[in-house]
Amino acid sequence: MNIKALLKSLLLRKFTTGLLILQLSITLGLLINSVILALDTNNKLSQETGLDIENTLIVSLRPTSGEYRNLDYYRSIVSEDLHQLSKLSGVEGVSLVNQLPINKNGMLGNFYDLDDPEIIRKDKYLRDVKFFISNENLGNTLALALLEGRYLTKDDQRDFGGNEPGNIIITNSLKKALYGDDSALGQETNNGRIVGVVKDIMLDPTIPVDKQYGVFDNRSMEFIFTGRFYLLRVTPGQVETVRNKVTDTILAVQAERDIYRIITMAEHMKRFYRHDKGLAELFLLLCGLMLFVTAISSYAYSQFHISRQKKYIGIRRALGARKKDILLYVLTENWLVYSLGCTLGLMMALGFNILLSQYISLSKPDIMLFIFASVVIFIAGTVATLIPAIKTSNIPPVIATRTV
């Protein structure tokens, strides 16, 4: 096959060839980044959280009665809620908390050791540490893995409005940021005395895994009308049974509450990534449409230009070219166009990736993904070209050599 002659043939129709090459490069660039986005989203949904996300139920609720402004009344209702929920069959632990893990926003504040307040200038993540206000049951409910010290107890609870620092537990990454490999037990911080260190859990998926700084404080009754959640650790296999009983159980204690949703921690995680997943699905849909349009364009490109070359093809047939030679000629011409399109598509993919990375978290493309996307493009183009190529190879020499 004379590649030089094929290039000359393509140059004779450089405008339409150039448009097809541009379309191929855009399709390849979009396909590569769509696959990256889909893979990134799946990886995020399957990453380790340090939590039993399948068997932890979240109850999102808010009081609607002004009676809750009475602290004693509020405490009595919450205590009864937790008591009744703990009695449900299949519930292994129940607690309340002011915010959820696997969330970007929430109650944040700076955190430092009293002997080294300047450390927050060195580590920006110490300025936005997540503060979890709960009760003594949170460690059991979330199955937090204790690495050092002890969990919080009933005796650690601080009363409403108390300003004196109490006892707290912190995540392991926060401990390492402040004290390295030294023990953190008994250390005094601007938010309390450390009595325990727990293994990291996913608090904010948008920051590095070694910066999951969290503080757990036993002040469950301090904030009454802020957003509040009940957490239930459920026996595996009993999640749906327990979920169906939660609403009636809570409203039987006091009916003046709005219960927004009852979901598992796994569903909460999917909600967090729903925009990423939706964007990935949109990009993949666009890729499918682009591949379809590219295939149609390839078919039209081949059909039109082959019809213009009937006389030339007929001469080749008359000189002894076989059907498979004509078929190979047509396919090679399109493979050459697709090679040029994929080469340009690599630069297009890098450009798309840099542009999209300004707005969303996106991994960099690798050579294997480029090869995979190129193979998909080549297969789609070959299938689209095959029909006009077969028709052309079946033209008898006596007809093909007529003046068109």
UniProtKB/TrEMBL annotation:
GO terms for cellular component: plasma membrane. InterPro entries: ABC3_permease_C, Macrolide_Exporter_MacB. This is ABC3 transporter permease C-terminal domain-containing protein. The chain crosses the membrane at residues 20-39, 279-301, 335-356, 368-390. The keyword Cell membrane applies. It is found in: Cell membrane. Residues 287-397 form the ABC3 transporter permease C-terminal domain. It is a multi-pass membrane protein. GO terms for molecular function: transmembrane transporter activity. Keywords: Cell membrane, Membrane, Transmembrane, Transmembrane helix. Belongs to the ABC-4 integral membrane protein family. It comes from the Bacteria.
